[in-house]
Amino acid sequence: MDVARSEVLVIGTSVACRSCQARHGVVCGALSAGQLSELGRHSLRRKVDAGCEIIAQGSENSFYSNITRGVVKLCKVMSDGRQQIVGLQFAPDFVGRPFVRESTLSAEAATDAEICVFPRNLLERMILETRELQRSLHAQALNELDAAREWMLTLGRRTAEEKVASLLHLIAAHAETATSTAFDLPLSRAEIADFLGLTIETVSRQLTRLRKEGVIRIENIRHITVPDMDALAKKISG
Amino acid sequence: MDVARSEVLVIGTSVACRSCQARHGVVCGALSAGQLSELGRHSLRRKVDAGCEIIAQGSENSFYSNITRGVVKLCKVMSDGRQQIVGLQFAPDFVGRPFVRESTLSAEAATDAEICVFPRNLLERMILETRELQRSLHAQALNELDAAREWMLTLGRRTAEEKVASLLHLIAAHAETATSTAFDLPLSRAEIADFLGLTIETVSRQLTRLRKEGVIRIENIRHITVPDMDALAKKISG
DNA sequence: ATTGCGATTTGATCCAGATCAAATCTCCGT
DNA sequence: ACGGAGATTTGATCTGGATCAAATCGCAAT
């Protein structure tokens, strides 16, 4: 854990998990008041800056988290440096791979974020004890699997323009604004490229192409508006 | 269900699921004797030919299965015909997407196969009733998620030669022979292309390239031997 | 305001893999 | 054995996206 780039807000009190529960964190939302209090005593709330590595690829899975604010990217890197983002997670998702010792991917805050961290052993014990927690984590795993497979279609069979449009559509769907026609990109151009299996140059060219076609407006480098969401959707062949 | 291309072996007796249990089917392996008997009374064993569609994309999820023999491919197709295989499943995997009404992908037998089919409602009730079944399906979902993410790296960032080598490596790992240095391809060239996000021509060229390099021998169109598994692994940049 | 540096865009060229086209190979039915 | 049709391989060419190169932008530190 990169302590230098994170700030621990609360340690070792049952207060720690109130925030998760209030936000229906996948873990905390499934626990009884008593369990929540026990979890709270052993958990901590962390504020992490964009870019902070929460889990390192190849490291031991010694803790898990709930995301309470912000966006987390899941990334796999090859020994020669090529890398691929294999998932984006948003509040109130659970982050971690239960029941496996070593992580096969890294998890990194894509934006400034807040997470609620619990020790591995305690969480795994609670999963075994608590039907509702297992059910809730099972449901998240199935949703992530659906998302991963949808993304496999994008990676394998869509063109660069369709890929970029798919990403914008995905981000818009998770944007917190009611209109969701204007949103901040949680990813840099390089991260977008790593998500789409493209280069930054191609991402940039496709964004300017969508802009010239009038499908999006690039208010500034991190902020996009979509005048007509259907026009964007039409760019993604179903 | 494409009944024309399948053969129902046993219907409506508690015998039906013995085969799943003996093979440690993900579902049947998690049930008590009493539950197994109830499941057996409502399940049926089917023999399906290669190419038989088990679940159609967009259809209602009205039943689930255990694979007891053979290989099943999970496939997504776009309206313009482009398609992507998003998963391969082997015995004793469970096939289906619990808790979702409509299937977002199709499942098709890649080889001749046998599956044990249960009705949706019964299985979902048993999941809610039975810790061990939920645990077991949760574990499979997590494993499929790991596999899907590994494959996203392959789709997004590996070259055609690395992709083909990755596929051969994957198949070899699931081959049932003890040596696993010689195996049958469960997929045609077209299916391999759809799994790797390539065209059949590129798949064919990469296979002959690997053959000319001495990494594989193509005994016949569906049968490969790998003289030195490490040489194959070296073709896949980690 | 000015400098400096990383992020982004834009331009020029290249190339891995797609596309188009044609042989071969397999295997099934007669 | 003989057709014949689909599957596979091989060849020729094209092209979308990569790579190499150079502005330009954004913004934090001075």
Automatic annotation (TrEMBL), chains A, B:
<keyword id="KW-0804">Transcription</keyword>
<dbReference type="InterPro" id="IPR018335">
    <property type="entry name" value="Tscrpt_reg_HTH_Crp-type_CS"/>
</dbReference>
<dbReference type="InterPro" id="IPR014710">
    <property type="entry name" value="RmlC-like_jellyroll"/>
</dbReference>
<dbReference type="GO" id="GO:0005829">
    <property type="term" value="C:cytosol"/>
</dbReference>
<dbReference type="InterPro" id="IPR036388">
    <property type="entry name" value="WH-like_DNA-bd_sf"/>
</dbReference>
<dbReference type="InterPro" id="IPR012318">
    <property type="entry name" value="HTH_CRP"/>
</dbReference>
<dbReference type="GO" id="GO:0003677">
    <property type="term" value="F:DNA binding"/>
</dbReference>
<feature type="domain" description="HTH crp-type">
    <location>
        <begin position="158"/>
        <end position="230"/>
    </location>
</feature>
<protein>
    <submittedName>
        <fullName>Crp/Fnr family transcriptional regulator</fullName>
    </submittedName>
</protein>
<dbReference type="GO" id="GO:0003700">
    <property type="term" value="F:DNA-binding transcription factor activity"/>
</dbReference>
<keyword id="KW-0805">Transcription regulation</keyword>
<dbReference type="InterPro" id="IPR000595">
    <property type="entry name" value="cNMP-bd_dom"/>
</dbReference>
<dbReference type="Pfam" id="PF00027">
    <property type="entry name" value="cNMP_binding"/>
</dbReference>
<keyword id="KW-0535">Nitrogen fixation</keyword>
<dbReference type="Pfam" id="PF13545">
    <property type="entry name" value="HTH_Crp_2"/>
</dbReference>
<dbReference type="InterPro" id="IPR050397">
    <property type="entry name" value="Env_Response_Regulators"/>
</dbReference>
<keyword id="KW-0238">DNA-binding</keyword>
<dbReference type="InterPro" id="IPR018490">
    <property type="entry name" value="cNMP-bd_dom_sf"/>
</dbReference>
<dbReference type="InterPro" id="IPR036390">
    <property type="entry name" value="WH_DNA-bd_sf"/>
</dbReference>
